[in-house]
Amino acid sequence: MDITEGKTVRTIAVASGKGGVGKTNITANLAIGFSRLNKKVMVFDADLGLSNIDVVLNLATKYNIRHLFKGEKKLKDLIVEGPSGIKVLPASSGIQELTELDEFQRLRLIEEFEGYEDPVDYLLIDTSSGISSNVAFFCMAAQEIIIVTSAEPTAMTDAYALMKVLFTKYQEKKFKILVNNVKGEKEAREVFRRLSVAAEKFLNISLDYLGHVPYDPLLQKAVRQQKALLEVYPESEAARSIMQIAEKISVENNNHVKGTLQFFLGGLLKAKC
Length: 273
Fold this sequence. Notes:
This protein has twelve helices and eight strands. The protein is of the alpha/beta class.
């Protein structure tokens, strides 16, 4: 790999305690947002047994992560191009054994990322929902973790449960909260306040408010078209909010390095000039 001094990929895990909060759509649209900020972006569909990103973006995928683990294909063979030039590493669909990676599969993945040579500025990891070992592995491998939640009580409870697992088992203390599908800033801030109070009281950690994405009927319209919102309705309220969040992330300094696992998706995967 051609390694450029000091230019490591920025790795962000996008997670949620509960399914159905719009995590995959947020990931896909954030990727396009970063691309429009002239960044080279890869999305890794880390819901390895139930592929989603390729369905959301209507991408034709000949191979998937299962072919890599079987030794039939290399990482570069799996990559497909999505809208705005983003690259997508697709998961498999309906393969139960991939929902919990074993040590050999994790090492194989590390090996493949080490050998990947195309330039990447941002790697977004769309984890599965819940608190499985795969979710923990990918969250801890990333430099940053975005927790997507909504105003539903179950979504907030499950978001807290995920943070609790990552804190108590892996000592993770940094989480960014993105509140999706709300009426507006006021409702989003209340969701964040409730999560923040619980996290500070019971876990003794403080959370960062990343932003919110309002309810927008055009989002569902885009989903039915299997298109990203930023691609088909870039002037919609939700699209503008996602773009603002992408801009906010892009100007932040990130010095949060979490040891050897971080190098798998950060230090070893470096962008070339």
